[in-house]
Amino acid sequence: MFLTRSEYDRGVNTFSPEGRLFQVEYAIEAVKLGSTSIGIRTSEGVVLAAEKRATSKLMVNDAIEKISKVDSHVAVTFAGLIADSRTLVERAQIEAQNFWFTYNRKIRVEDVTMSVANLALQFGDDDVKASMSRPFGVAMLFAGVDQEGPKLFHLDPSGTFIDCLAKSIGAASDGAEQNLKEQYHESTTLLEAEKIALSILKQVMEEKLTSSNVEIVTIKPIIDENGLLLIAWLIHLHHSPRCGRCFRRLINEDSLANHGG
């Protein structure tokens, strides 16, 4: 005799007769309630751009952090439940540091994503080894540069991660994804990727796009004279006077004219 729909709903590791895990599907829906984030990979580096959505005028805008540094060569952004994202970001940071102390070299972007994916899979209601009682209600974009070049990975609540050229997550991900398909091409430069990301956020955000409600990070390699990767360069654009001018340069009408702004 089959269980009822509500009983399948309660079981986080029980498949329905249709082969569905409802709790994982609900976690994926939770991602769509989060603010929009975009990642774009180019041959020169990777761009992450994220909407900072304040739910109240009484909130300090600087307290909202949508893009986090995992290591000097890796950053991550998310959409979904903030508390869940903090747990996963902390795991990524710990894995990156442990790898450095153990092997004296930087962890690959794919490997740090895989370590977080393994944690995302550790949920269950009757498994004594399970770390979490439910799936994480968050999706993440890991961006960085390693010995294989610029990398961008998308991780969803099911623990699935995929290597991407460009990706959007969050409330307006469907519209942003369509714009990415239309505007992205293999020869896109890093500066063009920044403009594309900002122009798409400008279109899909409910509020007017400003330097205080968007975070953007560019990650690119620094190569020494011997052609060796030394470190990745993180550029944060926010509402400081210097970066504010740079931000306004990126979002002015002329710079966005060719990118649907």
From TrEMBL:
InterPro entries: Ntn_hydrolases_N (IPR029055), Proteasome_alpha (IPR050115), Proteasome_alpha-type (IPR023332), Proteasome_alpha_type_5 (IPR033812), Proteasome_asu_N (IPR000426), Proteasome_sua/b (IPR001353)
PROSITE patterns from the UniProt entry: PROTEASOME_ALPHA_1, PROTEASOME_ALPHA_2
Compartments, as annotated in UniProt: Cytoplasm; Nucleus
Domain Proteasome alpha-type subunits, residue spans: 8-30
Entry-linked SUPFAM superfamilies: N-terminal nucleophile aminohydrolases (Ntn hydrolases) (SSF56235)
SMART domains per record: Proteasome_A_N
Keyword Cytoplasm: yes
Biological processes per GO annotation: proteasome-mediated ubiquitin-dependent protein catabolic process
GO cellular component terms listed in the entry, alphabetical order: cytosol; nucleus; proteasome core complex, alpha-subunit complex
Recorded superkingdom: Eukaryota
Keywords linked to the UniProt accession: Cytoplasm, Nucleus, Proteasome
Assembly and interaction partners: The 26S proteasome consists of a 20S proteasome core and two 19S regulatory subunits. The 20S proteasome core is composed of 28 subunits that are arranged in four stacked rings, resulting in a barrel-shaped structure. The two end rings are each formed by seven alpha subunits, and the two central rings are each formed by seven beta subunits. The catalytic chamber with the active sites is on the inside of the barrel. The 20S proteasome core is composed of 28 subunits that are arranged in four stacked rings, resulting in a barrel-shaped structure. The two end rings are each formed by seven alpha subunits, and the two central rings are each formed by seven beta subunits.
Family as reported in the entry's similarity comment: Belongs to the peptidase T1A family.
PANTHER family: PROTEASOME SUBUNIT ALPHA/BETA
Described purpose of this protein according to its UniProt entry: The proteasome is a multicatalytic proteinase complex which is characterized by its ability to cleave peptides with Arg, Phe, Tyr, Leu, and Glu adjacent to the leaving group at neutral or slightly basic pH. The proteasome has an ATP-dependent proteolytic activity.
Name this protein carries in UniProt: Proteasome subunit alpha type
Organism: Parascaris equorum
